[in-house]
Amino acid sequence: MTKPIIEVKDLAKNFGDNQVLKNISEQVNPGQVIVVIGPSGGGKSTFLRCLNLLETPTSGEVDFDGQNLTTLDTKKVNTLREQMGMVFQNFNLFPNMTVLENIKLAPMKVKNVSDADATKRAHELLQQVNLDDHADAFPSSLSGGQAQRVAIARALAMDPKVMLFDEPTSALDPEMVGEVLNVMQDLAQQGMTMVVVTHEMGFAKSVADRVWFMADGYIQENNTPEEFFSNPQTERAQDFLSKILM
Amino acid sequence: MKNKLIMAIALVMALVAGWTATTTTAQAATDDSLAQVQKSGKLVMGTSPDYPPYEFQATVHGKSQVVGMDVAVGKKIAKDLGVKLVVKSMSFDSLLVALQTGKVDMVISGMNPTPARRKNVDFTHTYYQGGYSIVINKSDKGIYKDKDSFVGKTIGAQTGSTMYTESKKQTSGTTVKGMTSVSDLILGLQSHKLQGVAMEKPSAQAYVANNKELAMIPSKFNLSASDTSASVAFAKGSTSLVAAANKSVDQIRKQNLVNKDYLPAAGKYLKTNTVNTSMLHYWKAFLKGIEYTLIITVCSVFFGFILGVLLSLARMAQGGVFATALRWLATAYVEFIRGTPMMVQVMFVYFGLGLIVNLPALTSGIIAISLNSGAYIAEYIRGGINSVDKGQTEAARSLGMTKGYTLRYVVLPQALKNIWPSLGNEFITLIKDSSIVSIIGVSELIFQSNIVRSDTYRGVAPIAVIMVLYFIMTFTASRILNHFERKMQHD
Ligand SMILES: Nc1ncnc2c1ncn2[C@@H]1O[C@H](COP(=O)(O)OP(=O)(O)OP(=O)(O)O)[C@@H](O)[C@H]1O
Ligand SMILES: [Mg+2]
């Protein structure tokens, strides 16, 4: 059996009195694509942000590559964080930089990659997401779909071992959802380990290895997509699916 | 203006009182004032050069310098001591503070050795016995005869001067208005805000001789000798220096040097000075003013910006006792600076810090304005940083960038763009507000215009000139800033 790349043990997170995550224990194996679905406010974003410590867990452990992130010092956390790329609902591209500069910034500043190497790698990634002709554009001139593909390329530029996606298509016009999902699907096929929070059930069905259903601060159900969608185990999941499939 | 200044002086005096008290008593115990001056080889004289013929600015061989009978007195004292005389200009109100804080070694500025002043400084014997006159508009000749003719009218006198106190005391039914500079008073007279201006007789003579529209009348003030005599002031307890200066002063009296040599010489400067009173003739003085105004503004915005960044970061520090302390300190600093007048800060840096390190006026001015501007810029930057979407920080951190890199490469550039208009406003405000440092004698534009005004006996023209000059500077600056603002707009 392979060693899990991410292992979460008894993870809990409170915001004041509001207990958002309640003792979650799950694991992600290398190469797996996990799709996290669930009702709004169920704690999906918070869970994802706890994985790369953008949010500090209240208790429990997050092990990445065999190391417990919650006990590491800030410097080590920074190094491990660069191995987990993250893509946000609102892209969060740096508006004062061109597409190329957005992608080059972190490799050059964090990994001390030379300008020439960073530029070369950035162009490769832009080709991968079909946007090389926009290298010198500023983010404000891009469509939502283009911006999100640039954001994916930017995260990939750090050569992460895992990619975290938090509703990457929720802010997009419907006709642009496909181009982003295609890029993600390609990535999955190349063997990237991915944790994806999404409402795109089609993507979950065709790409996910496992579906985690999350509500009320728990992972209520961890199943294969086939099983989850045809035969949900918990009442909570049945309820959720009946609502969104209507 | 006057009230602000007096308040400022009071505050600075109170703040430095502790130090001065200790330093002066120390001096009294072991007086080495004379030895110190001889050791340094120079004697620094403080004066307010807008009081011809006592002291005023004149263009000598193309260069503007302070001349007048007081300067001749100063030269004589320095020569007798075998040292070089250095003349430092500042406003009359600042002179005694400068003396007490060691900015100058002595003050010669037509100053009367009144009992109140004697409490704080030591005076030499009298080098000149004057009297008061009142300058009026020539058209009013016959209406006013002496101080008692001004019932229901307004007369003016220089703030902080003996004339001012005595005019208040010895008139009834007359409003007495104080202004810092005599040129302003004359302007007030000519624009009929004032009906008379009380000043020392030699000054009155100089003004009347140089301005055909003015006349003078005797004041008929009832005055003690100390109110009409002029003496040299030294720091309290500098007995040896006073004794040495007294030898020179006694000679001046005995040989009647003031009336025989000094006053006629000063009169000649006055004549050459007023030959050409066109503003163009003084372009060099104005240019120097512009130069200093710009130096002060640019340096202050530069250092203020650095300080502002540090302060804003300190105000946002998080985690640990140290961060809390830092945050508290930065907040206290910003609140304190924003809650006190810039004028007081300028005087505090020049006179107050001057007790510890002897800073030149220009440096003090730049330090004070940078410290002031830093507090305001810190608030702009804090607002700018808060206005940057949190998602930007999260994206940068998720890429493995440290807090510092995130701030430097992602947040600050965007914050800067957001606050650029506010920073630009701060810069333009500083072009105008830097004029405050004129009170400590920095030759920026206002200071230079005052010199031109007392040089030419023309009240309005120099003001009109600097108004236009200020406008040209601020307008050009705002054009340049707009240009950069447009360049930064790509999103
Ligand atoms: N920084 C925060 N401070 C306080 N409460 C928070 C914070 N972030 C999230 N919460 C709360 O935690 C709960 C879970 O939020 P979270 O964003 O993780 O849910 P979600 O499942 O991602 O929902 P959505 O589908 O709307 O994105 C919500 O009640 C939210 O109000
Ligand atoms: Mg969410």
Task: Write up what this structure looks like.
- The complex is a heterodimer of chains A (246) and B (491).
- With 246 residues, chain A is of the alpha/beta class.
- Chain A contains 9 helices and 10 strands.
- In chain A, helix 3 runs parallel beside helix 5, helix 4 packs across helix 5 and helix 5 packs parallel to helix 6.
- The N and C termini of chain A lie far apart (40 Å).
- The mean pLDDT of chain A is 93.
- Chain B contains 19 helices and 13 strands.
- Chain B is elongated.
- Chain B folds into 3 domains: 143 residues, Periplasmic binding protein-like II (D-Maltodextrin-Binding Protein, domain 2), CATH 3.40.190.10; 91 residues, Periplasmic binding protein-like II (D-Maltodextrin-Binding Protein, domain 2, 3-Layer(aba) Sandwich), CATH 3.40.190; 209 residues, MetI-like (MetI-like fold), CATH 1.10.3720.10.
- Chain B has 491 residues and is α/β, with parallel strands linked by helices.
- Chains A and B meet through helix 2, strand 6, helix 3 and helix 5 of A and helix 16 and helix 17 of B.
- Bound molecules: adenosine-5'-triphosphate and magnesium ion (MG).
Along the chain, the helix and strand elements of chain A come as EEEHEEHEHHHEHEHEEHH
What is the CATH superfamily of the largest domain in chain B? MetI-like
- What integer value in Å does the Rg of chain A equal? 18 Å
Shape of chain A: globular
Poorly predicted ranges of chain B: 1-5, 18-29
Domain ABC transporter (chain A): 6-241
Organism (chain A): Levilactobacillus fuyuanensis
Subcellular location (chain A): Cell membrane
Membrane topology (chain A): Peripheral membrane protein
